[in-house]
Amino acid sequence: MAGAGGWDGPQRRAWLRHYYSQRQKRLMTLLIARRRRTSCYFYPRAWPSVRSTDWWERVVLKEFGPQDWLEKFRMSKETFFYVCNQLRPGLAPHSAHFHPTLPLEKRVAVALWHLATNVEYQTLSPLFGVGPSTVQTCVREVSYAVVLLLKPLYLRLPNEKELENMVRIFRTRWGFPHCIGALDSLHIPIHPPLRLSADYCNGQGWHSILTQATVDGLGQFWDVSTAFPGSMENSAVLESSSLWVLAKEGRLCPNPPKHFMGKAQKYVLLGDATYPLQDWILKPYQEDENLTQRQLQFNYRLKRAHSVIENAFLRLKARWQILLKCDDCSLELLPTLVLACCILHNVCEAHDNPFNEEWLEGTEPTELPKPCQPAPAAMEDSRAEQVRELMCQYFESCGEG
C-alpha cells in the first residue's frame, strides 16, 4: 500500500499488524501451492573443472570426517542423510523430465553450506561446479521443502502430554514452575527496498525483520512467527501472531487448567519488559529501589529461566549464520528461510549433534544494539498480577535457588 511507510502513530501500526498477520496466514497455503506448481528441477551450468565435479563425489562423500561434516553442514553425516530422506518427497525429480538434475543430496548440501556460512552465491558455486543461480535455486527449494516436510515433525504446537513434560523440564532444569516456554524476539539485519525503508527501520536505527519465537526448557523452538518489519514493537507482533490466538482460545493449557498453589492456573510463558503482562505471560517487576525481597527473587528466577531462549537464539545464529545478515535473500523468501533455520536448529538439537562454541564468535555485533521498547500499559492484564504474586509465594516457600 503506497504511503504506508509515511503514516504515523496508531494508524500505521494498525495497518502493519493487519498486513503481516494476513501474510503469516497465507504462508503455508503458498508453500503448498508452490509445491504443486513449481518444478524441482535444476539445470546445472557446465562444470567449471573436473576438480569441482569430483570434489563432491570423491572428497565430501568419501573423505570428509565427522568434524568436516559438522563444520560445513552443521550436522553429522547421519543427520544429513536423514534430512535428505525426509525431504525426498518434495525434491525428488519426475522421471519423465528430459533435463538432467543435480542429485538430491548435492542440492541439500549446497543449501546447508550457504545457510551455515552465509558465503556468497558466487563464492560457493565453483566449489560445487554449478552457477550462482543454481545455488540460489537450491537454497530456495530446499528451504521450502524443509518448512513443508519437517515443520510438522519438529516445530509444532505441543499436545497436552508434551506440555506436561515441558512444565517438568522448566521446573527441574530452570527452577521455574508451571511454565511451558520462554518468549522473545530476534531482529535479523536486512537491506530493504527503498520504498519500505521506514517500515523496516527499528528503534535502534538499523533495518531488520522481526521474528518472534517460543522455546521449551531444552532450547528447542515450538512456535515461530517471522518476517514482521523491524519498526513493529514486540507487543504489536505478539497481537498479530498465532501464539496470541492460541492463548486466547485456551489451547496452551489443559481444560480445565491444572492447579498451582491451590488454584486453577493456566500454564505461563516467560517474557521481558517488551511484552505485556498477562495471566499467561509473566515478565519481571520493573527494577527500582522499592522492590521487596520476594519481588527481587521472582525477577532473578524469571530472568534465569528466560535465558534459555537467549541461548537458543545465540546457537541458532551461530549454527546458521545466514541470519547474521540476509543480503542475498529477497523479502519474499525471508519468512521461509528463517523458519527453515529454526526447524533445522531443532533437528540438530533433537539428534544431539555437537555444537562448536567457536561458531559463537561474531554473532553479536556491537554496532547493532537490540531494540527494546517496553510494552504499552494498555495491554496489561490486571489479573496477571495475582499470578506473579502466586509465583512469589512459591519461591518464598521453597527458599533460595
UniProtKB/TrEMBL annotation:
Superkingdom of origin: Eukaryota
Essential cofactor(s): a divalent metal cation
Keyword Ubl conjugation included in the entry's annotation: no
A matching Pfam family: DDE_Tnp_4
Any GO MF annotation of the entry: nuclease activity
Keyword Nuclease: yes
Predominant location: nucleus
Signal sequence range: none
Domain DDE Tnp4: 183-346
Entry keywords, A to Z: Hydrolase, Metal-binding, Nuclease, Nucleus
GO cellular component labels: nucleus
Subcellular location(s) per record: Nucleus
Annotated family: Belongs to the HARBI1 family.
Name the record gives this protein: Protein ANTAGONIST OF LIKE HETEROCHROMATIN PROTEIN 1-like
Species name: Grus japonensis (Japanese crane)
Classification lineage: Eukaryota, Metazoa, Chordata, Craniata, Vertebrata
